[in-house]
Amino acid sequence: MTTQTAVKPRNPYWQLWRSTPKEVLYLILGFPIAMTGFGVAISLVATGIGTLAVFLIGFFVMILALYVGRGFGLVHVNLLEWTGRKKLERPDWQDDRAASGFGGWLRATLGNAHYWLYLLHTTILGFVLTIITWAISFAWLTVSLVGVIGWFVPAEFVDTESDWFLSDWVFGSMGVDTQGWNLILVDNIIASAVSLIFIATLPFVTRGLVMTQWWLARGTLTAFKSDGLRREVESLEASRGAALSAEGHSLRRLERDIHDGPQQRLVRLQMDLAAAERQLDTSPEQARVLLSEAQGQASEALEELRALSRGFAPPLLLDRGLVAALESVASRSTVPTLVNSELAPQLILPGEVERASYFVVAELLTNVAKHANATRADVHLSIESSKERDWLLVRVTDDGRGGAAVVTEHGLAGIEERVRGVGGSLDIESPDGGPTVVTARLPLPKPSAERPPVAL
């Protein structure tokens, strides 16, 4: 019989108190930061507007104001996240125009709405809201502490000659005779009760004020939805370009391999058959030798064609899946290779991801055998999950000499193009002396709402 330990539910109120010290510090420190940002930014804006007639000076001062607004806005966002609020997506600060020279950078900066929103937040929206939240939080903290501090004030500092006491006013208005009461003691008790109420409600107040700041930052200091769409379009365009480049590279390599291998053997085969035909009547023994050599040429040409076909979609990959195909590649490698897979048996991978994974491993193991001077290699398959989608990680490790790098028109460049062609990325860690770790990160389809994700 298994005994299960009951999990004690968390108290939401005490959970609020855990982040209250950070929230109080944020609200208090926010005021001098906002004042500094406002002073610097508004001075630059006024100077920039005043010197617009002098074209270069005015524009450069305005650009400086935009960068100041950006800096203080990022400080504000980072402090909000430090208090425990949900992370805010940073905007894109530059676009393709910035890479086209000084004029492009100028247009990319002045034409970026995020810069102006950050400046607006620093000079008006965030500044005004920070003053309000600071005043409320400061007043709340003051009232919370006054009742506690009152008990520790020495008697000589208390104005006992005063004709007005809080307790006398409160109870007098209720018709209660306070003659003979220790009004100072009663005042301290009332102040303490009010302080306790303010202290008890402090977490709710600070959380509300911080969330107000967070909602304003979410509306003005975060990336637009169009930024994500633009990045996705750019990624798709880059993937398409990489796919076309990888396809062209593969076709050129295939053409070269066919020309240098099977084509030469088939030409030799044709010549041997023609020579054998001429020798049939005059020298049967010589014809038999030529036919035997022709058979060898045909067998070698067939093996080379089979080897070339493995670079596309070997039958084993189509019939038994990625793991079995990679184990076959590892068994043929001249470097002892171990394949380790964390993939669930029922996981079905898209065809293009399987082919890309097979190509990556086959090419990397070929590079290891030719250049790494390694004694062993490892292939590891796993799944990396994120909020947006899952990723297939294909990692190849060897204990060789290291120093691997992407060089145009060489093996790793072709692998990188193939990976980017399916929307993935390639990471290479290869210090001098090794080991070398190459990781391909390949995208998997987003989980469907009607179909549960594959359990690993």
Outline the structure in words.
The chain is α+β, with helices and mostly antiparallel strands. It has three domains: 11-155 and 179-223, no CATH class; 245-309; 317-443, Histidine kinase-like ATPase, C-terminal domain (Heat Shock Protein 90), CATH 3.30.565.10. It is built from 13 helices and five strands. The protein has helices at residues 12-50, 55-82, 102-110, 113-149, 166-173, 183-220, 225-260, 262-279, 284-309, 315-320, 322-332, 351-372, 411-421, and strands spanning 337-341, 377-385, 390-398, 425-429, 436-443. The chain has a five-stranded mixed sheet with strand order 1-2-3-5-4. Strand 2 (377-385) and strand 3 form a beta hairpin. Helix 2 crosses helix 4, helix 7 packs across helix 13 (411-421) and helix 12 runs antiparallel to helix 13 (411-421). It is elongated and about 145 Å long. The relative contact order is 0.07. The model is unreliable at 1-7, 155-160 and 448-456 (pLDDT under 50).
